[in-house]
Amino acid sequence: MTTPDAAPGPSRAPEEAARCFQEGYAAHMSGRLDDAKEWYARSIAVSPTAEAHTFLGWALSAQGRLDDAIAQCHLAISVDPEFGNPYNDIGAYLVEQGRLDEAVPWLERAKRASRYEPRHFPYFNLARIYIAQQKLLDAMTELRGALTVEPGYGPAKEQLVRVHRLLGLLN
Prior knowledge:
single chain; 171 residues
C-alpha cells in the first residue's frame, strides 16, 4: 500500500509533477513566492520540465535573485531547447542587470523557438534594448514585429508612438 507521502511510481510521475507545478503556479500568482519555489522544486524533483525550471527562475527573479533565475533558465533549455520562454527570460534578466548587448542573442533565440507563448515578448524586449541604445529604427522594426504577432499589445503600441515621436514622424 502506498502512503500519500510516498514517491509516485514512474507511470504517475508526470501527473504528480504537473500537480506540483500547478500548486506552484497558484502560489506564485497569489504572491507566495517561497511556497511557489518549493512547489516548482518538488515538480522538478519528480519529473524535470523546462516549464518548472523556467517558472522557478521567474519566482527567483521576483526576489531579486537574477543570477539564480538565469541558472534555472539554462537548466530549462537543457531539458527542452525548443521551449522559448527561458531564452526570453534570460534576455529580460540580462536587461535588468544592464547587460544589454548580452541579452540580444537570447531574445533572438526566443523569437525562433518552435514552442513559445507569448511570442511577442522577445520583440518587445529587443525594442527596449534598442530604445536604450538609441537604435530607433531597429526598435521600430521590433515593435512592429511584436504587433504583427500580437496586434492588441498595448505597451508595443505605446512605445511605437514614442519611437515615431523621437524620430520626428509624429508631432
